[in-house]
Here is the input.
Amino acid sequence: MTLVAVILFMLIMFMKQAKRTSGITRGIVSVWLATGLLLAGAAEDATYRSPSALCADSGGVALYIAQTTTQQVAAFDLETGSVKRTIPVPGTPADLVLSPDASRLYVALGEPEGRIAVVNTASGKIVNIIPVGHTPSALAISPEGGILYVCNRFNNRVAFIDLGSGKELASVPVAREPVAAVLSPDGQRLFVANHIPAGPANGAFAAAELSVIDTKAKKLLTSIPLHNGSTGVNGLCLSPDGNHVYATHTIGRYHVPATQLERGWVNTNALSVIDAVNLKLVNAVLLDNVDRGAANPWGVACTSDGKVLAVTHSGSHEVSIIDRVALHEKLATDPPENIPNDLSFMVGLRQRVKLSGLGPRELVMVGSKLYTAEYFSDSIGIIDLDTQRDPRSTSVALGEVPPMTVVRRGEFLFKDASWCFQQWQSCVSCHPSDRTDALNWDLLNDGLGTPKNTKSLVLAHQTPPTTATAVRANAEISVRAGIRFFMAVRPESDAVAIDEYLKSLKQVPSPRLVKGQLSPAALRGKKVFEKANCALCHKPPLYTNMKRYDIGTGVNLEKNMKYDVPTLIEIWRNGPYLHDGRATSIRDVVTTFNADDEHGVTTDLTPEEITDLIEFVESL
Here is the structure.
């Protein structure tokens, strides 16, 4: 019997007894029952651990596990295969890194007021808290242990933190949403994975990129674009010799109409290989088979001898175990132009191992064993690579796993590709982090030849319609159409669960806010917002009137087309903008693509007013 059931059973028994007692006693027991229900609900909410990030000490003794929904880090004893202790942290743990001597564990608390919790690994106590930027999502540490590199996701910057003083030494801008980082063995180059593309979506090329930072000069050295259509970058690792970087991501085939799922017509799943010496993309190899996708690659790691490379697939709940030496031999001999489209490339190079758990994310190699965080089953997956001819996975539960609530099940279905036709993709393939993949898609819902930019799903159920041209009247219809056309036929209960999950999404406070409030420039911009008549269509509090207008942006087949007024809530993270993603920034929206004042009267605004207006809009 679960703790929740025990609590409820005891309180019901108390209530039955109270019927034979005084009114005062019944009142007291009623309060106890209400309190117990609240505690029981809180306890059930807290039992999801959602392991996501991992790090292990070099001695192969301890594995540290970020449990995102309990705000804890678990110390897992690799010898006994059990949790030795749990360490509460004052926020959502997003990434972990150990000091070179393993005496300190640095925990990124991935929240708007980002912080790093410094944990004494001997005592399990937090000994310091270091403030950093907006949503620290990835960490790396210098070889001598003096500098911590922090990817502040929504500031689009990497901070250099002096661990002696806790002070920021530098902050280097990168492309967009840095979510993973690895440091070269000599500590001189930091490779940073940017989650989604940063440019316009209506051209011939759109892709996420890797940023390379010179750690000595504390500046961006170069950027390396990934293959066209690359988005949803999640994982990054470096080969032991320091010669190659590997990045996991999807490749959206956005340049063709989305008319079928077979053979990765919409999304394929890839591993990019980067030359870490000459700083260039070697190629992107597909991790799918001809008739079976390997959806949503996430974690990636090498064995210490460099012979094996492993990738987790969070959507298809498996691990690819790759012969790294053979991979590079084939990369050197196959025609490079064919490789990113070759669904047979990995034949003979890797094994696909089905995991016992669900939703694998980061992974680490410790000796001959692979460990991965299984997000949805609250477990650690383990594969012994010494049995490589026939590797099997086992899972160790991190605690009692309760039944999924409707919202939790909706989240799982949204990120699960196993129910998609040939498991090519999940909903998150086109909506990474529930927002946008920053690509244009030519869907069949409004005819061919009319590509549209992917929309964020935050507030989708509260701000109908859900398509740019109002083809789908509301989010409920869109969810069911998405299931039918891009996944598989499913029962109505699955659509309802996904609805509930999407309704539960919370907006992230803008990095433009100052201690949660509008800056002086944004307060001035709020007045400009009214002056420019922006509020006529973008009406508070949702900043949309949910109507459609011809704003002069339709071209070709959509000349004079009326488009939905999108909400401006969280617009700061959902570019590119306008229905076809032509505008990279809000500045482009109100200046370059508004020459005739068809969406706000902005042509007579001063440069200062434009800047203030942008500050306000990007604070929403």
Notes: The domain at 520-617 is CATH 1.10.760.10 (Cytochrome Bc1 Complex; Chain D, domain 2). The radius of gyration is 25 Å. The CA atoms of residues 317 and 358 lie 5 Å apart. The longest helix spans residues 23-46.
